[in-house]
Amino acid sequence: MNILFLRHGPTAWNAEGRVQGQTDIPLSDAGRAAVRSWRLPPDTRSWEWHASPLRRAVETAGILGIPTDRLQTDGRLKEVNWGDWEGAILSELRAELGDTMRRNEARGLDMAPPNGESPRQLAERLRHWLQEIAIRQNNVCVVCHAGILRAAYTIATGWDMRRAAPLEKGHDWAHLYTLSVDGNLAPDSLNICLTENEPPCDHGG
């Protein structure tokens, strides 16, 4: 089966560089306008649609034309829990914490904020969700968050977050994988441009 992951549209906190995590921030007016400009890959609107229950993801799916009775939400698709750091501006946090922050980020998948969740824990909850979805063998679109996009790449490739992943960091990109019946992901086409002014591109696996 095919599974397409796409990130929610932009929010005011995205524009400010704030850590959102599981704080339930809606799309901004600019974010809604951006999502209205997206072009989904052919036929994907007829696929099974899933989303994080956070408003920014559910709203993105609605703007893309997916009615609420066709959208399935699951808490395992939420962004990573950033704990005490939610609402902080990441650049200011790095400046304030200095070497402590650098050592934490150097832990890769085991980096974790105080009272929060590590990327490894996020990948594990996504893995459980994938195993359940795989049994159904339907093509799936998932509206989610940057952390989920990174977790999917980790599951598919073994990426450990100690080097940059070939994933575009904006909101208007989707990533297509194949999902086997046992819940394993394999990259198909990464970095599919959703804006009509940009040609499709693929950075491979």
Brief write-up:
The chain is an alpha/beta fold and 205 residues long. It has seven helices and six strands, in the order βααβαβαααβαββ.
Describe the structure.
The protein is of the alpha/beta class and 205 residues long. It contains 7 helices and 6 strands, in the order βααβαβαααβαββ. It has helices at residues 12-16, 29-36, 55-63, 90-97, 99-105, 119-134, 146-157; strands at 2-7, 48-51, 71-73, 140-144, 173-179, 185-193. It has a 6-stranded mixed β-sheet. α6 (119-134) packs across α7 (146-157). The longest helix is centred in the middle third of the chain and has 16 residues, at 119-134. Residues 197-205 have low confidence and may be disordered.
The residue-averaged pLDDT reads 94
Q: Ends: how far apart?
A: 17 Å
Write down the secondary-structure element order: EHHEHEHHHEHEE
The strand count comes to 6
Poorly predicted ranges (pLDDT <50, ≥5 residues)?
A: 197-205
Number of helices: 7
Question: What's the story with the biggest beta sheet?
Answer: 6 strands, mixed
Rg over C-alpha atoms, rounded to the nearest angstrom: 16 Å
Derived structural class: alpha/beta
> Order of strands across the widest beta sheet?
3-2-4-1-5-6
Percent strand:
15-25%
Share of helix, binned: 25-40%
Shape: globular
How do the helices and strands line up, and which of them pair or pack?
Layout: E1 2-7, H1 12-16, H2 29-36, E2 48-51, H3 55-63, E3 71-73, H4 90-97, H5 99-105, H6 119-134, E4 140-144, H7 146-157, E5 173-179, E6 185-193
Parallel strand pairs: 1-4, 2-3, 2-4
Antiparallel strand pairs: 1-5, 5-6
Helix pairs in contact: 6-7
